[in-house]
Amino acid sequence: MNKILWVDDEVDLLQPYIIYLKGKDYEVITATNGEDALDIFASEGNTVNIVFLDENMPGMSGLETLQEMKRMHPEVPVVMITKSEEEHIMEQAIGEKIADYLIKPVNPSQILLCLKKHIHQQAIVSEHVRDNYRQEWSDIAYMIDTATTFDEWRAVERTLSRWDIELEQSSMRSLLDDQRAQANAAFAKWIAKNYESWFEVQSDNVQSTKDAPLMSQNIMKHSVFPLLDKGEKVMLCVIDNFRYDQWKTIQPLLSEFYTIREEEQYLSILPTATQYARNAIFSGLMPLQIQQMYPQYWVEEGDEESKNQFEKELVQTLLDRYRRREMFTYWKVNESDFCERVIHQLKGTQTPLTVVVLNFIDMLSHSRTESKMMRELANDEAAYRSLTLSWFRHSPTYQLFKRAAESGFTLVLTTDHGTTRVKNAVQIIADKNTNTNIRYKVGKALNCSSKNVMTIEHPERAGLPCPNVSSSYMFCSGNDFFAYPNQFNYYAQYYRNTFQHGGISLEEMIIPLVTLDPK
Question: How far apart are CA 100 and CA 103, in angstroms?
Fold first, then answer.
């Protein structure tokens, strides 16, 4: 039974309400003044679910009582009830963090609505969400079974991400997880069937076909160049490892100073890794073309150098090839102090194009793999989203976007790839020169018995470099990851339930591309 503390000097007038609420299975405790109410609250505050507090009482006022109650049990919602509609009283009450504000005379239905809102809202919303998901489950299953185009798979990912967020703490999570696994299995088959057909190879040139979806190498031409042609000042912000559900999590904060002009999703190229996908964005080329045209800017898998150290140079090659004369600035932000420097530099800048890379989420996913504490803090997708939101709200990144809006930048917000939480290790045999990524492998004589892998035997057909004549690429799909026979059980346990990228899944490949206008 839920317990109500009702504080009002005219307690006799409350009897009809008390009888009504008892009939609704509520226990009502009354007090006629602030002092008595605080005594009750001190002894029973831990069991009180809500307080109805009269603002105008002899002795200690309602506002004074409210202040003391908030010191004692700040988590208990307090609803102020008053005859006065004076603005300053309302503002004082709101400033003390009241849960609600009712004007006398109140009727029983108002009280009941207030109780449902502040005591039962979470349970009501959860049940409503569960009912809606049950009703939509078969529609989602049909979407998955019949998806044959990128637009249809994009709709599947949007729908599943929406339910990921709405069912965060629900008992329906396991059902949704099963449905996402089914979707990823079907999506991987679709990718395996179509991926190479999206590229046309002519001699040393690799081009997208007209049937190909929007992919990494075309992002600048698709979303940035048209804005520059209109004379707009553009900031392209690439957040590494940024999934669609994470975008939906931070969207409300960005809405304070930006409005959405266009929200899209595009398909990351394979492998869904920085060396390939992000370099493709900045160069406007497939990795094979970068290696052939600009070998000085391509870093091989086995090299010890950073795989993304030439991003600024690749942006310049793209502008040069299209004979664009725009000046641009490039910033890679790994630390808060450096982000603050970028914020300062943005003030008053007239440079047409600013490119910013934010690496926090990439660092988060890697630290989560290596740190037990971070595994506990981000033990599932909901916690991963929560950490993303906390980073965005409390880091200088929030101020970066605010300054960009104040400076008149049109913001193109995107990522190079997403991540997926891996659970199942599959055994692979490969030579010692094979790369270390656990979602994809490139090397000679790759051998894996799993049916859930996709192999590209002729890398050039997919616009990929070939380290050796007999090299091939192999990709995990769904929530699988590669482990070698040597110490298989150790690595299977070490990487299980970590967020990884490089392979084939909706979360890694169908990623946000959003254009926003400053308010």
Answer: 10
